[in-house]
Amino acid sequence: MNKLAHSLKEAIIDSGLSDGMTISFHHHLRNGDFVLNMVMDEIASLGIKHLTVNASSLFDIHAPLAEHIKNGVVAKIQTDYMSAALGKFISDGGMEVPVEFRTHGGRPRDIEKGITPIDVAFIAAPASDCSGNCSGKLGKSACGSLGYAIPDAMNARYVVVITDSLMQYPLIDWSISEVYVDRVVAVESIGDPKGIVSGTTKITRDPVGLSMAMDAVEVIRASGLLKEGFSFQTGAGGASLAAAKFLKDVMLKERIHGSFGLGGITGYIVDMLNEGCFESLMDVQCFDLKAVESIRTNPRHREISATHYASHDAKSATVDSLDVVILGATQIDTKFNVNVHTNSDGYIMGGSGGHSDTAAGAKLAMIIAPLSRARLPIVTDKVTCVSTPGSTIDVLVTQKGIAVNPKRKELKQRLVDAKLNVMEIEELKELAERISGVPQQTEHGERVVADIIYRDGTIIDRIYEAKAR
Amino acid sequence: MNKLAHSLKEAIIDSGLSDGMTISFHHHLRNGDFVLNMVMDEIASLGIKHLTVNASSLFDIHAPLAEHIKNGVVAKIQTDYMSAALGKFISDGGMEVPVEFRTHGGRPRDIEKGITPIDVAFIAAPASDCSGNCSGKLGKSACGSLGYAIPDAMNARYVVVITDSLMQYPLIDWSISEVYVDRVVAVESIGDPKGIVSGTTKITRDPVGLSMAMDAVEVIRASGLLKEGFSFQTGAGGASLAAAKFLKDVMLKERIHGSFGLGGITGYIVDMLNEGCFESLMDVQCFDLKAVESIRTNPRHREISATHYASHDAKSATVDSLDVVILGATQIDTKFNVNVHTNSDGYIMGGSGGHSDTAAGAKLAMIIAPLSRARLPIVTDKVTCVSTPGSTIDVLVTQKGIAVNPKRKELKQRLVDAKLNVMEIEELKELAERISGVPQQTEHGERVVADIIYRDGTIIDRIYEAKAR
Description:
Two copies of one chain form a homodimer.
Chain A: E1 4-5, H1 8-14, E2 22-25, H2 35-45, E3 51-55, H3 65-70, E4 74-79, H4 84-91, E5 99-101, H5 106-112, E6 120-125, E7 127-129, E8 134-135, H6 149-155, E9 158-163, E10 166-167, E11 183-186, H7 193-196, H8 207-223, E12 231-234, H9 238-253, E13 258-265, H10 267-274, E14 278-286, H11 289-297, E15 301-303, H12 306-310, E16 324-327, E17 331-333, E18 338-339, H13 355-361, E19 364-368, E20 372-373, E21 376-377, E22 379-380, E23 395-397, E24 402-404, H14 409-417, E25 422-423, H15 425-436, E26 444-453, E27 459-466
Parallel strand pairs in A: 1-11, 2-3, 2-6, 3-4, 4-5, 5-26, 6-9, 7-10, 9-11, 12-13, 12-16, 13-14, 14-15, 16-19, 17-22, 19-23, 24-25
Antiparallel strand pairs in A: 7-8, 17-18, 20-21, 23-24, 26-27
């Protein structure tokens, strides 16, 4: 009954991993993660080939994956997010088989339904006991929630926990229990704490961002949703965080007690919990140390699995009860379709994450985006890639005006009545083009390099090989 | 997305329940449970027939099930424990199809492997929100852990939560999450708090019981297991509780810091946690109010699922890491086989519960039992029914002496060296017969009324129709 492996290599051999199988990783260690590269190097040295890598997200630190693709160790990638380093490699046609992009809710759905079965899951665990009861809340590489890893552990044929803090049995505050774990490997370090904590969790100082954040809060107020029991999610971008800060001020001033904050959690949302804006936090991922400290110590700050967060096929998920979500966009078109996968040139530099899941679930899904970035218009006729369908987006807030999805007539009237600067999205597009020029039609190659799989399993768009202009 | 049913009847109809299906119940409300009878009456009134009832345990309050068996509503019973009222009905041949007895670890194993699939699980939940995030820790019928219900909720095709405390969404301290729940029904009362708390959680005053408890602690000391990291489980019987009390005194005096207390948890084990004998408690069921209060408020007192507690087919379970368990017996034979299913006349009045699971897992599995009860010898040539195989039992402690399983030679030597009153089990049997007389061979009928299914899925014994002497 001893699950402790002497080495990662031994654990991989014990798992029976062989050519053509699927392995999985989670991304709570973000850009500080050592585990994916460590595992891939070991697998490569064992001569195992043609693997599918199912990773909840891939960051720049995972750029070495490109070498394993070139060498035939990795034949296919499934992920919810891919940052620019690997994104460029894929967009340049570096991989034969298209990447499968899913959402944070679609990934656990497809794992649980057996659409994307996992042979061996590798769980980077900041703390684990010898039987595999493991947690992200403790240890020198503490990352807080392990929410995205839970479906992997529960459904993989074989589960290897990799930790740099081996604790006495039983680790009582486990996120993943021993019943799912086959092997535990102790290593020197699973990650770099500086990279684990996001660099983006600071409020913007940019006046454009601040002005949009203020308008976002005015939209929420005018929507009628900001009342007792209010629930909220926002991202970790600067303007989104500013919106959280301004929202907190309003809620405290008006003594509004919300029910829950959701999502990737930052210190700003923790402040809202601690100051009484919310009864609880539902946390699938911690973005900063304050969030990690809070989930470790505050029982009202609770870890949720990716399934509980956002699965389309769970009997219900938290996103289904969400009032308001604030989201970003690299592009949004006049049908409110949002692109968060590629830049305007069509290069992969992101992914849906929970974008489409929360947009579909929330009563009010709001995009905050400036009209243009780096002299390229954000509001456009047609997005290069549909990440989130416009039918699930309710409002766009820009620095020049606010556009409401035409199917939300009652909401539009509310914003007009509140004297907000409501415009048609086509007007915003024209404004954007007046500032930054009409964007050239992006040319692309013939080959599909990625499929965008919506949360219900349907392919809603494809990304083609990019052609540098 | 509204899961709230207007009535239990509506929820049953929505579940698609029909003739021949399997429904399940858990027993955390013990002899105070209103839910099983309430559901069965509603099902009977809907005219649904030939159901299999899979209940983690059945108490005297569930005696009305006999009527549903007679009327053809219930065709088969699967359970881990059945108290005397229903036990007599079954032993008298009241049911055509044999009862399937499993263990607390075998039940979740067979549910998870699809051997005993559940169509509709009915979860008695002392607190739930409208989406089915539910808990046993809160509400007027609080029972603490919902550990036995977790595998049912995770694996049933349809899950109905029945609560008498509907809470605001999200109920943050859920034991079972909304992702598994189809319908929530609010009722006036799910149980009688007086029956929920066991009547057995008091230390014995009987000098025989106290003497055996003291000897049990001496056996633990002599075994060499009572040291840093020690782990322990005991039942809720009077002598077992007395052993816990004496063990606590020893651990405090000798400053031994154990790792965990396991099992059905009583206030005595909570005291051991609070006074520093254990780092944590792993709790599949609370036996008294002190345990309920502790699991609600102390993060080191953690709920575990039945799978995590004891499943034979989990990648590991807590019983696998257990040092010592103290168990009871209605009979034990000279091969150390233990009967906890029937009385000496062969009438069903119990069941394995976690008996065989903990015996198999623990490094030291000890039976405490007096030589005789009600003038019937407990130690005998051959038990009427093998609940737990003798190969997994290490020691028998009686008021007249201590017997060690012959295969544990090293342990026997330790007890001899500690000058404990070690005897052969055959000697204890003879002593018992000298006191109470040689028991008559129990006669029984031809018909099998129950199968005893061991934790690995094999049938280890059968119970036959009883013949009253």
